[in-house]
Amino acid sequence: MNGVELPLWVTIPGSLLLVAAGFLTLTGAIGLLRLPDFFMRMHPPTMGTTLGTGCVLIASMLVSSALDQRPVIHELLITVFVVITAPVTAMLLMRAAVFRARRKSDEAAEADRGAPPG
Amino acid sequence: MNAVFDYAAWFASLCFVLAMLIALLRMFLGPAAQDRVIALDTFYLNGMLTLLMLGIRSSSTVYFDMALLIALFGFASTIAFAKFLLRGEVIEP
């Protein structure tokens, strides 16, 4: 850390927050890889999006405040932005996936209906 | 006590990079287009978190601006992809 000694009230919560963020994000990514269905796979990455980002940004705020000897809160910008945009992207992707799944099943039903007479 | 924080920062960076690799794997594997889009979204977000960890570990503010830009562009690209999957066109006349 560039030779600057961090105080104890930053080291302990900062380390705990960073470890929690890494664990949560990695768990979310593994869930993205392992779950069998798209509608299930939608859920785990949101854990990294909300909790992981929040933990890292709070830790970043603590560390930069301790190093600069004054409150540094511009990391709140990213937090607010991510918290606002994550539900929007999730909802649009869900709508797109539902639309595509319904169109696919409609086409399959159409093919089934059309096959026997023709 | 700085050693503890260094180890925690290393652990978090390692987790974010591993999560990026896993998202990349899902992007290549993904059976449908929407799987690839959600994997790209996760990839963007973990890249942003990796940059933030670099900023914490080097105590520099340059990485913060890059992380904000990545968050902005990730949001815009995911919205564009979702719109394309939904309508077949991004900007409609």
Describe the structure.
The complex is a heterodimer of chains A (118) and B (93). Chain A is an all-alpha fold and 118 residues long. In chain A, 81% of the residues lie in helices and 0% in strands. Chain A has four helices and no strands. In chain A, helix 1 packs antiparallel against helix 3 (44-68) and helix 3 runs antiparallel to helix 4 (76-114). Chain A starts with 7 loop residues before the first helix and ends with a helix. With 93 residues, chain B is an all-alpha fold. Chain B has one domain (2-87): Helix Hairpins, CATH 1.10.287. Chain B contains three helices and no strands. Classes of the chains: A mainly alpha (118), B mainly alpha (93).
Q: Would you count the extended β strands of chain A for me?
A: 0
- The first-level CATH class of chain B is given as Mainly Alpha
Kindly report the average pLDDT value of chain B. 89
Tell me the quaternary state: heterodimer
Tell me, rounded to a whole number, the average pLDDT of chain A. Answer: 87
Task: Output the number of helix runs of chain A.
Answer: 4
Quick recap:
By secondary structure, chain A is mainly alpha-helical. Chain A has helices at residues 8-34, 38-41, 44-68, 76-114.
Explain the layout of strands and helices:
The complex is a heterodimer of chains A (118) and B (93).
Chain A: H1 8-34, H2 38-41, H3 44-68, H4 76-114
Helix pairs in contact in A: 1-3, 3-4
Chain B: H1 2-29, H2 33-58, H3 62-87
Helix pairs in contact in B: 1-2, 2-3
List keywords for this structure.
heterodimer; A: 118 residues; mainly alpha; 4 helices; elongated; B: 93 residues; Helix Hairpins; 0% strand
